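Re: the multi-chain job from yesterday

Posting the exact lines I submitted so nobody has to dig through the queue logs.
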Amino acid sequence: MNVYLKRRFFDQIAVMFGREAKKPDAIAPAAQKIHMHKRGNRDFIGEKLHARAHAAPIHKWRNRRWAVLLVANLLFTVSFWLDIQILEGALTASRFVGFHLIDLNAALQVMLAHKHIIVNLVIGTGTVFVLWLLLGGRTFCSWVCPYHLLAEWAEEIHLYLVKKKLVTDQNIDRRLRTLSWIVFAILAAATGYTVFEAISPTGILSRALIYGPGLALLWVLALLVFEVFFSRRAWCRYACPIGLTYGVVGIFSPVRIKYKLDSCFHEGDCRKVCLVPHVLDTVIKGRAVDTEIPIGPDCTRCGLCVDTCPTGSLSFDVKGLSKLL
Amino acid sequence: MSESAPPPPAAKPPPSRERAQQARRRVLRTILLTGGVMGAALSGFLPLVYARTKRLRPPGALDEKDFLSSCIKCGQCVQVCPVQAIKLADLVDGVGVGTPYIDAREQACDFSCDAVQCILACPTGSLVYKKPAFLGVRKGAKLAAAPILKAKEKDPEPTLNLNERIGVARLTRPEACLAIQGKGFKGQVRGASFTGQLRYMEVNRWKPIRVAEHPYDVAECDLCVRECPVKGAISIETVFAPDGTKRKSPVVHEPCVGCGVCEMICPVEPTCIVIDAREVWNT
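And the result, C-alpha cells for all chains:
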C-alpha cells in the first residue's frame, strides 16, 4: 500500500464513523496522469456515449445476493419447522450443525449488560468474527440481514415516488449512527438490559420469520414507512449500530470492491444505486488518489455498483487472491 | 522586523441563506430520527420497568434482572422443547421483546426431554444448570436435593440436573378444588380442543401426546398429584377444615420446582392451582 492509499485507508475509517468524504490532499502521479488525460478528451467522450448506448441493465450480483439472503434466512425457518437441525436459533444467536454462531452486536450488548461472559458466547462470537472478517464485514448487512431486503424493496418505492416528485430524500447526519452505537452501548451497560435488541429490526424480523409474526413488526413497518416517504434507507444509513460493528470488522477484510480509474467514465451511476455513496466518493472526477483503489470498510459489498457500472471499473476483489491467480 | 504578519488565511465565504437553512433542517431531521429511535427503544424498555405480571421463565433461568441482561433472544430454547412449552414474548407482554416464557396453563414444562434441553441449548448462560459463583442464590430458591423425575425413577440416574426452582405451585382456589370437595373427574381435561401435551409413561416413554387424547376416569380427583413429573413435590393429604371436618387436599412440598404441570392439568376452570413464577420456598 503506497502512501496515498494508506492515507485514504484511514480517511475511509473516519468516513465510516460519520465524517464527510472530502477531496484528497494528494494524488499519486500515475493517477494524476489519467485525470489529465481524461480532461476534455473527445475520444473519451465519444467512447462514453457509445458505451452508454449499448449498456444493458444487469442484476447478476443482486440476484445472487437475494438468493443467498433468502436461503440463509429460510434455512433458520426450515430447520425449526421441519426439525432438521441444520441452523437452529435466530440471527442473534444460532447453531450451525452444532457450531455456535453469535451476532457480534447482540453479543456485545449482552456482554455489556450482563458483564459476564460464558465460554459458548466467546466461541460463537469468535466464529462469527472470523467468518465476517473473511467475508467482508458489512457483507452481513446486504447478504444476510432480512431488514436489508425489505429496505431495498421500500427503496424502490421511495425512488419511484422521488421520480414522480411526490417525495424528496431528506438526508440525515451520518454521525448519528456512531452516536447511536455509543448510546446503546451505554444504555446496555447502565440499565443491565439489552435495550437495542428490543428494537433491532434484524432480530425482530429474524424471529418473526422463525417463530411467527408479532406486534414488534409494527416498529419495522414504521421504519419502512419512514424510509419510503421521508429519508432513503434511513435505518441502514444513519441509525443501525449493527452496521457499524460489522463495518469495523470490514476494515481488515480482504473481500472488497475494487475501483479502476482508467476505464471509469465518472458518470456516477454507481453512486446513485449505492446504500453508502460516501464510500464511492473516489469515483468523482479528479478524486481518485491512485489507479486502483479498494473501496472503504463501510461498503456492504452488495454488488449493486458492480452490476450498474457500464465499463467494469468496479469489481469484486479478494486482496492477495488476484495476485495468486 | 519589517516583515508584515502573514496574511490571514482566506476566510471561507459565508454560506448562502439557502445553504444555512438546509443545514438547519438537516440538524432538525437528525434530532427527529434520534428521538424516534430512542423513543422506540424506551417503548421496549419501559414496560419492563413497570412490569406487574411475573412470567414463568424456562427452567434454569437466572434471576429476572440477570436473565434480561443475558438473554440474546435467539429462541434456541424454544426450538429444543419437545412439548413447545416455551414461547417468545411480544412487544405488549411487558417481559422483554423476544425473551422466552412459559404459559403453564396452556402448556407446562413436563420435563419430557428428561435432561432440561433448553438449558443445554442456551448460548449465553441465561439458562444454567448451576449459576456462576458471582450470582447469588435467593433464599428458598435452591432445591434441597436434585429433583427426582418420576419417569426416570428406575433409571440409574433418576435426577434432573436442576439447582433452583423457577416457581412454586400454590392452591389458589381451594373452594373449587375437586379433591377437597371429594369429587371425582371423568372425561377430557380442559375439553377436546385443548392443545396442551403431556408425556404419559404408560402410553409412550419418548413421545408426549395431547392431553385431550387421554381422558380420565377417577373416583377422587388427584390429577395434579398423579401427573406431577417430580417425585414428592405434591401429594393428597388429609387435612382438617376450619369446622373440624376431615378433608382431602393437595399439598405442595419442598421438591416443587414450579414446572406448572399441575396448573395445566387442573380440570377446573379457572384453575385451582397455579405457579407463582419466580417464587421461593417459604417454610
